Amino acid sequence: MIRALLADDQTLVRAGFKSILDGEPDIEIVGEAADGEEAVALTRQLRPDVVLMDIRMPRLDGLEATRRIVGDPKLAAVRVIILTTFDLDDYIYGALRAGASGFLVKDTEPMELLHGVRVVARGDALLAPSITRKLIGEFAQRVRHPDPSPRLNALTEREREVMTLVAEGLTNDEIAARLVLSPATAKTHVSRIMTKARVRDRAQLVILAYESGMVKPGWV
């Protein structure tokens, strides 16, 4: 059972998402928050698997709420999905830096919403192609002087190759096809890389790949 928490200051938005998610046998809505402060407090109290977080809320915005949740060692298992009005929201870069595992547009189709919650709950990143393009554009502007991370020193050549493909936005199946591996082997490589790099999920792995200079904007 995936335990989800909804954080949005619009009651109708929460009700709409709840009606979709609560109807699934593997998803349970355990709480609702109307602002960022309440979202953080309920997350600490209820320990959901996934928080669907509106980025613009009173008292505390979704960006800072995400940062506080991700920064709490007791909430290491919690994943945050940012809810945006437009898929090219200006907050994309900042939200990923804060630790969000992905994005969903508020007018997304019900099946996409369900898929997104399930993807993030199992530890994968949820980055639509348009989000990935925006992210790469942000890196092109911001990452002028990469800072090589000692966390990547332990990676093998194969793991570095796999990490580059993760940063390109490829799924495990696509990585397997590109490198002529089994999907299980590709998944194992990605899991080991995340462990060595000490990151929560694929979204954070993409951030690290760019900021360390392993991948440069324009390569992908």
TrEMBL record:
Residues 148-213 form the HTH luxR-type domain. Residues 3-121 form the Response regulatory domain. GO terms for molecular function: DNA binding. The keyword Transcription applies. One of its GO terms (biological process) is regulation of DNA-templated transcription. Keywords: DNA-binding, Phosphoprotein, Transcription, Transcription regulation. Gene3D superfamilies: 3.40.50.2300. The modification 4-aspartylphosphate is found at D54. The keyword Transcription applies. It holds the Pfam family GerE. PANTHER family: TRANSCRIPTIONAL REGULATORY PROTEIN NARL-RELATED, TWO-COMPONENT RESPONSE REGULATOR. This is DNA-binding NarL/FixJ family response regulator.
